[in-house]
Each structure stands twice: as C-alpha cells, then as structure tokens.
C-alpha cells in the first residue's frame, strides 16, 4: 500500500512562510520517470484542486504554476525520501488544504495524472 504523509501545515500570519513536507513509503516513485506534485484545495472549492508545483525525483527539475512562480519552491531530499514545498509571502488567499501527489510519468499540472495522494495538511493564513 502506497502511503504519502504530509506535514508542516498550520496557522500563520500574512507575510509569513511555511515549508510543507511529504514523505512516502513507496520507493518506486523515487526513480525515473516519476514526478511528484503539490496541489491545494481552497475552502468552497471541494471539486477542484489547484496545481502548485511538480518535480522530477531523479533530476530535481521543477515546474511551477504561473500563479505562484517566484513565491513557491519545490525540492526533494533523496536521502530521506521527502518532497518539500516552501511558500513565502503567504496571504489569506493561500488558506487551503495542501496535498502531496506521486506517480505521474511527467511534470504535469493535471490532477488525474497522479495516482497516489496524501491526506493533506491544512494551512490557514490570517490577515
């Protein structure tokens, strides 16, 4: 059974930063050609997850949504099998549940390309 576990969410004031983490027990996704991604689901948008960023595990090549480029950094720790998402200059509009996803065969902003998902970690930004 593939497990992805996110952590690092919480409550933060506008202007602050957070680093979200995702760890997996599935080593298969720590190889070519697999990509990992981060998505978020805002309140009131239960039918839609917004793409944030993706990364190839082996090469570390990132891919960012235009809406967050410059404010978000995705990275991976090959030793500890973790994916990170650093979010800077947070605003209340960033309030959402953030999800880690794995198993895409390319860097993709499409939710359905990732077969495996974590349970999410809540981020709440106050003004």
Q: How would you characterize the overall build of this protein?
A:
The protein has 127 residues and is mainly β. It is 0% helix and 48% strand. It has strands spanning 4-7, 10-13, 18-24, 35-41, 50-56, 62-64, 72-77, 82-87, 96-104, 116-117, 121-126. Strands 2, 4, 5, 6, 9, 10 and 11 form a 7-stranded mixed β-sheet that branches. The chain has a 4-stranded antiparallel β-sheet with strand order 1-3-8-7, with no helix packed on it. A hairpin with a 4-residue loop joins β7 (72-77) and β8 (82-87). The model has no long low-confidence stretch (mean pLDDT 92).
Sum up the structure in keywords.
single chain; mainly beta; four-stranded antiparallel beta sheet; 11 strands
Short description:
The chain is mostly beta strands.
How big is the Rg? 13 Å
* Beta strand count: 11
Which spans of ≥5 residues are poorly predicted at pLDDT below 50?
A: none
Anisotropy-based shape: globular
| CA distance, first residue to last residue | 40 Å
Order of helices and strands: EEEEEEEEEEE
Question: Which percent range describes the beta-strand content?
Answer: over 45%
Kindly state the mean pLDDT as a whole number? 92
Helix percentage: under 10%
Largest sheet: 7 strands, mixed
Please tally the helical runs, counting DSSP H or I stretches of 4 or more residues: 0
């Amino acid at each position: 059974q593939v497990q992805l576990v996110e952590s690092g969410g919480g409550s933060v004031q506008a202007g602050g930063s957070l680093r979200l983490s995702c760890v997996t027990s599935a080593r298969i996704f720590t190889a070519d050609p697999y990509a990992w991604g981060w998505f978020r689901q805002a309140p009131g948008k239960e039918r839609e997850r917004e793409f944030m960023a993706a990364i190839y595990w082996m090469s570390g090549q990132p891919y960012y949504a235009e809406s967050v480029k410059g404010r978000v950094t995705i990275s991976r720790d090959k030793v500890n099998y973790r994916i990170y998402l650093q979010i800077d200059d947070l605003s209340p509009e960033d309030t959402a549940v953030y999800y880690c996803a794995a198993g895409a065969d390319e860097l993709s902003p499409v939710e359905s390309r990732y077969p495996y998902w974590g349970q999410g970690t809540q981020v709440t930004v106050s003004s």
